[in-house]
């Protein structure tokens, strides 16, 4: 749907606008949240005695992405090219995202200044203030602009109210930078000076003035905090930024893929359950994979040319580089493998879990987290070894998603999904719950709406990933 969400402010006379208005969206890791951004320029056609008579809204370009792509990009900063006007370069659009803390504090403050630097040739200065919140990477993001006070070197700005989380994301000691500018009609505002502070420092001025020297000329700025409240810190998912490394594994259960009785049947009209599950889960989780290269494996097949049984072979047949480009690349490799290998048993889970675990064990700095997506028909031939593999993997930065397809009973899968009773092996219990299992058949929509049913499947299997990631970091920190 094309639901209108909101609009930024208009910034005059610039080709490189830095918008102040922030948009607060509810982020759901397990859902695909599509976004569209349209850029327009507002042109005043006629203005009489400062009264706007009419205006024209010209289209400058648009961009489509998902909220997950913004959150999952390096530093939660995404830069994309605008498009929409044939034959014309529309420029780029840059997004920055930061999770707001649960802090509900609100600060109302008023600022005044004296002896500001004179910038205008025929007058004094028309000063205004710009507040910036500092980011984790050392950059700054605009969070507030005051009104302009015309022709005054000793301005008193109106009191304004701002959420503390917008000012410093609830961190009382985070740097807050304030720039002082002289307003110019053409948008080329003159810089007067700046100072840095923090909300904690600002709040100490509740009963007395805070005086800051503006670092440019010998101008002074005085801030007065009117209100302050307390903050309750909490642990959040983005406190641990990392790249999710997604690996796909498909169980090639016996049967002829050219026959409708096979779970791998390649119908010309619709995808089989394996492909649907891969696409549904993969399209969402790929937004958080740093390079969009997915190692994809099959297990339970005889490989050409000698018919050797394998429980972890690259779907693209490239033993040197099992990576597929995007989820579409994984699907292409899956369909190609069905034409080249002979589907065969038994079904051993442990080899591929151990293979991913070896990759995860090499990451010791918390910079990566691995998600193993396994799609299988439900039979496990090596249950004891699989349970031991899961117990060992629970101490590593990894999660396992299992989608069971076909009519089989999934008792073994339910046992691996340790929601009720934690998985154990030889008296040793997994220190975290890292397995999430769902049966594909529970999501077949009777009305035939595959899009809706696959969205529900993806939501359910991905819902636990943020908590599992957090649980790993909490265990590592203890």
Automatic annotation (TrEMBL):
<dbReference type="GO" id="GO:0046872">
    <property type="term" value="F:metal ion binding"/>
</dbReference>
<keyword id="KW-0677">Repeat</keyword>
<keyword id="KW-0106">Calcium</keyword>
<dbReference type="InterPro" id="IPR036465">
    <property type="entry name" value="vWFA_dom_sf"/>
</dbReference>
<dbReference type="InterPro" id="IPR000008">
    <property type="entry name" value="C2_dom"/>
</dbReference>
<comment type="similarity">
    <text>Belongs to the copine family.</text>
</comment>
<protein>
    <submittedName>
        <fullName>Copine family member 9</fullName>
    </submittedName>
</protein>
<dbReference type="GO" id="GO:0071277">
    <property type="term" value="P:cellular response to calcium ion"/>
</dbReference>
<dbReference type="Pfam" id="PF00168">
    <property type="entry name" value="C2"/>
</dbReference>
<dbReference type="GO" id="GO:0005886">
    <property type="term" value="C:plasma membrane"/>
</dbReference>
<dbReference type="InterPro" id="IPR037768">
    <property type="entry name" value="C2B_Copine"/>
</dbReference>
<dbReference type="InterPro" id="IPR010734">
    <property type="entry name" value="Copine_C"/>
</dbReference>
<feature type="domain" description="C2">
    <location>
        <begin position="89"/>
        <end position="212"/>
    </location>
</feature>
<dbReference type="InterPro" id="IPR045052">
    <property type="entry name" value="Copine"/>
</dbReference>
<keyword id="KW-0479">Metal-binding</keyword>
<dbReference type="Pfam" id="PF07002">
    <property type="entry name" value="Copine"/>
</dbReference>
<dbReference type="InterPro" id="IPR035892">
    <property type="entry name" value="C2_domain_sf"/>
</dbReference>
<dbReference type="GO" id="GO:0005544">
    <property type="term" value="F:calcium-dependent phospholipid binding"/>
</dbReference>
């Amino acid at each position: 749907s094309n639901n209108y969400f909101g609009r930024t402010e208009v910034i005059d006379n610039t080709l490189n606008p830095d918008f102040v208005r922030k948009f607060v969206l509810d982020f759901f890791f397990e859902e695909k949240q599509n976004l569209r951004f349209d850029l327009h320029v507002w042109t005043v056609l006629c203005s009489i005695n400062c009264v706007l008579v009419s205006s024209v809204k010209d289209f400058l370009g648009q961009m489509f992405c998902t909220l997950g792509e913004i959150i999952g990009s390096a530093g939660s900063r995404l830069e994309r090219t605008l498009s929409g006007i044939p034959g014309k370069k529309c420029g780029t659009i840059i997004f920055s995202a930061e999770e707001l803390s649960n802090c509900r504090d609100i600060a109302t403050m008023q600022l005044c200044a004296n002896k500001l630097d004179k910038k205008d040739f025929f007058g004094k200065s028309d000063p205004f203030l710009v507040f910036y919140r500092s980011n984790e990477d050392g950059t700054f993001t605009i969070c507030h602009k005051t009104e302009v006070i015309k022709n005054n070197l000793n301005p008193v700005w109106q009191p304004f109210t701002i959420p503390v989380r917008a000012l410093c994301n609830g961190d009382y000691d985070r740097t807050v930078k304030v720039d002082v500018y002289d307003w110019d009609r053409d948008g080329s505002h003159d810089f007067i000076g700046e100072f840095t502070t923090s909300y904690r420092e600002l709040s100490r001025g509740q009963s007395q003035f805070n005086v800051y020297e503006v670092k440019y000329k010998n101008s002074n700025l005085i801030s007065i905090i009117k209100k302050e409240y307390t903050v309750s810190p909490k642990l959040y998912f983005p406190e641990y930024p990392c790249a999710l490394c997604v690996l796909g594994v498909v169980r090639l259960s016996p049967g002829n893929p050219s026959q409708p009785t096979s779970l791998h049947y390649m119908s010309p009209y619709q995808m089989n359950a394996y492909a649907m599950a891969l696409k549904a889960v993969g399209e969402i989780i790929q937004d958080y994979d740093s390079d969009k290269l997915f190692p994809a494996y099959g297990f339970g097949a005889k490989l050409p040319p000698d018919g050797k049984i394998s429980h972890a072979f690259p779907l693209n047949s490239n033993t040197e580089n099992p990576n597929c480009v995007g989820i579409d690349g994984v699907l292409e490799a899956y369909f190609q493998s069905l034409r080249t290998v002979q589907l065969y048993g038994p079904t051993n889970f442990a080899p591929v879990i151990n293979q991913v675990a070896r990759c995860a064990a090499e990451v010791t700095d918390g910079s990566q987290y691995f998600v193993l997506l396994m799609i299988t028909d439900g039979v496990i031939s090596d249950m004891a070894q699989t349970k031991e593999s899961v117990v060992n993997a629970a101490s590593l930065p990894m999660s396992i998603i299992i989608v069971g397809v076909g009519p089989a009973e999934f008792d073994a899968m339910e046992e691996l999904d340790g929601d009720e009773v934690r998985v154990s092996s030889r008296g040793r219990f997994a220190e975290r719950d890292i397995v999430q299992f769902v049966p594909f058949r529970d999501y077949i929509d009777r009305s035939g709406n595959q899009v809706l049913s696959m969205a529900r499947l993806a939501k359910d299997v991905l819902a636990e990933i943020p908590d599992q990631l957090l649980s790993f970091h909490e265990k590592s920190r203890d």
